[in-house]
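Handout, section B. The chain below has 170 residues.
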Amino acid sequence: MNKFRTVLATIILLIIVSCGESDMQKTFSNDNYSIEYPESWDFDDSGKFNTKFLIYSNTEILDGFRENVNFTIQNLPEDTTLKQFVEGTKQQLSQIPKSKIIKSNIIKLNNKDVFEIVWQGYVTNNDLKFKQHCYLEDNKAHIVTFTAKQDTYEKYEEKASKILNSFILK
């Protein structure tokens, strides 16, 4: 019976450890938007790389790259429609080396139409993969992007999607 308890305790411990990082969430919020992210990820709203914020994975940088979610705002010509933005985005992506659009559609998040695109390409000397949510409001594109190396994208995609889906444009 003691051997059974030891094996059971070991299995339970392995299950707990395999769950990885905590599911505890932090929230960043201001007058314009809010987003939730894992407590173990790093938040940076210093404006680095012309972003409003960057949220970095907690993984050590063994390959020289930290997976991240970032938020940028792009000014648009007056009265730009979502359809025009989608076409313009696809045109811009075609200029990136080794670019390939994997998925592109309009989804509904928090009662707003959102252009969601998953694409990959050779950017900053890396084969990267991206998932973006683009909101159009007040002649601006509000773009939330998950960026990862192509070979690590799947590892982070579920967690990154939760972060992207938590974004609320107020």
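Note. Strands lie at 25-29, 33-38, 42-44, 53-56, 68-75, 100-109, 112-123, 126-137, 140-149, 168-169. Compare this with the example in section A.
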